[in-house]
Amino acid sequence: MYGKTIKSIRKSKGISQFDLAQNIMSRSNLSNFENDHYIPAFDKVIELLNRLNVTIDEFLALSEQADTYYQILYDELVASENYGSLDDLKAVNEKISSVRNLSSKHYELYLLSQYVLNTSGSKTVLTIKEIKAYIKPLLFKSEQWFKRELQLYNNFLALFDYSENQILYKKVMKKLAKQDVSTISKEYRVHLALNYGIQLINENRWESAKKVLLEGKRDAKRKNLLFQELLIDCLVLNQTEQVDYLFNKLIDLGYQNKLTILKRHLRQ
Question: Domain 1-54 class?
Fold first, then answer.
């Protein structure tokens, strides 16, 4: 993201990569930084800002604006998928498409919007095969699992078949068990358990699904993720009366609008 901000400032001032990079770093390193493929030392970034005549505060403010707009678009996409119409999804997709080249993060959001639109039955620029061809190497080759990687896997888990997720899910859980994970990582562990558990149910691998879902429930309890905990209960329970009781409990807690989404995932 920061490299893209440098690029935007440089272009607005009419400065070439060669002139900006001179005596600070190689032009190729600057190009890689601007495209989020390289992170220079902090003192090098300061030198670039000095040459651009931009203060650190100004630079951070510009970077934050880009990040805030990304989050707005992401939230709009999620809301449109869950509650909106196909026209709403198309409108959000247009917005995201216009900023897809700002950074790798924005491009991945564009892929997600294309994926959601495609699975909603609409014609898209990119095919599912093309989306998967971009996402799969990022996840299967990744050795670090922080927010970006976990969010990416959670968003695109359904792209992969059971055999692929069997490998990737175990790899991620093993990595998270070893490292000192953040609160955000623990929450994604719950979301991943839910999504993978649902895929296992759809594959009629009930015992494996139950194990994954109950592990997710333990994490949900620790993080007070009540909605996710109740969703797991609904997926695991067989008795209709108990599921109905949980539905009523959700309504009492103000989750009426989410029941449609919940029921979409339940076994028939």
Answer: mainly alpha
